Amino acid sequence: MTAARAERVSAAETVQTRVSVREIHEVSLRALRASGLSSGEADYLAEVIATAEIHEAAGLDALTIETARIPAGRVGLRLEHCDGYAVAHDPASRGPLQAFVPACETAAVVGTLVVPGMAGSPVLDWAALDIAERAGRILSLSDGGHRTVVTPGGDLLRLPAGRDEPRPPVAGLVIRPLSEVPDAQVISTAAERKQRNREAVTHGVSVKAPLWTLAYSIARGFLIPDHREGR
C-alpha cells in the first residue's frame, strides 16, 4: 500500500456520522437476525452493542465480528471441570459476545470459569456489567494481560492483570466471582451512564461512518421484500 493510499484509508476510517440511539439498536438487531440469531438473542446482544457504542465507541466494531460468525446449529456450550475450573467449550463456534454471555451467566452461579481462546474486549466488559447487576455478583474478567471488574452497583473498573492471579488450565478469558471489589480505576459508574444516556438520546451518537455503513448493509439482509405488485 502506498503512503497516499494509506492516508486515504486512514482518513476514511475516521469519518464520523451522527445517528440516534434507537437506530444503533435497531440496525444491530436486524444485522444479528440476518446472521442467524433468534429474536431474543439478537435483541439482548443489540442492547449490549448499543451500550458499548454509546459509552466507549466499541459496539459497532464488535457487531462486525459477531455477524461474521454464524452459529453452527443450536448446540449449547459444553462444560468440563479441570483443576478447579469450569471450562466452557463452544462447539458452535459463535462470535465472542454470543459465547461470552452464557459463559458469564454460568460463572456468576457456578464459580470461576475459563473460556479457551477468548481475549478480553470492551464489549465483553459492558455485557459483564449487565450480568453483574442482574446476578448481584462482583465479577472479574482477566485474559492474562488486562483485567476488568464489574459490580452489582453498576461500577466498571479496569486494572492490569495481577501476577498473583491463579493460572487457568487452558489459556483464555477467566471469569471469576469475587467477594470484594479490588482497588482499581473506575471507568464508569451507574450515575455517569445515566447522564451519558440522556445526552445520547437527545443529541445522538457520533459513530465511524464505515462501520455504520457496513452494519446497515448487513441489516438489510433481514428486510423481507414486499411482492404485492400485480395483486
Task: Describe the secondary structure blueprint for this structure.
Layout: H1 3-14, E1 16-19, H2 21-34, H3 39-56, H4 59-66, E2 78-82, E3 85-89, H5 96-110, E4 113-116, H6 122-135, E5 138-142, E6 146-150, E7 156-160, E8 172-178, E9 185-188, H7 190-203, E10 205-208, H8 209-219
Parallel strand pairs: 3-4
Antiparallel strand pairs: 1-10, 2-3, 4-8, 5-6, 5-8, 6-7, 7-9
Helix pairs in contact: 2-3, 2-8, 3-4, 3-6, 4-8, 5-6
Describe what you observe in this structure.
With 231 residues, the protein is α+β, with helices and mostly antiparallel strands. 46% of the residues lie in helices and 21% in strands. The protein contains eight helices and ten strands. The protein has helices spanning 3-14, 21-34, 39-56, 59-66, 96-110, 122-135, 190-203, 209-219; strands at residues 16-19, 78-82, 85-89, 113-116, 138-142, 146-150, 156-160, 172-178, 185-188, 205-208. The strands form two sheets. Strands 2-3-4-8-5-6-7-9 form an eight-stranded mixed beta sheet. Strand 3 (85-89), helix 5 (96-110) and strand 4 (113-116) form a beta-alpha-beta unit. Helix 2 (21-34) packs across helix 3, helix 3 (39-56) packs across helix 6 (122-135) and helix 5 (96-110) runs parallel beside helix 6 (122-135). It is globular and about 45 Å long. The termini are far apart. Residues 1-11 and 227-231 have low confidence and may be disordered.
